[in-house]
Amino acid sequence: MQSNEPRLRLRVTTTAEWVLRSGHPWLFGDSIHEQNRPGQLGELAVIYDRQDNFLAIGLYDPESPLRVRILHRGKPQPINAAWWQGRLKEAIHRRDRLFDDQNTGYRWIHGESDGWPGLVLDRYGTTLVLKLYTAAWLPRLNEIVGIITEQLSPERLVLRLSRNIQRGANKRFSRADGEILFGPNLEGPVIFLESGLRFEADVLRGQKTGFFLDQRENRRTVESLARGRTMLNAFSFSGGFSVYAARGGAKSVTDLDISSHALAGARRNFELNSANPGVVHCRHETLQADAFDWLKRNAQPRFDLIILDPPTLARKESERAGAIQAYGRLVRHGIACLREDGILVASSCSAHVSAAEFFEVVRQTARASGRKVTELRTTGHALDHPATFREAHYLKCIYLLF
Question: Which residues form the catalytic set?
Answer without folding.
Answer: 349
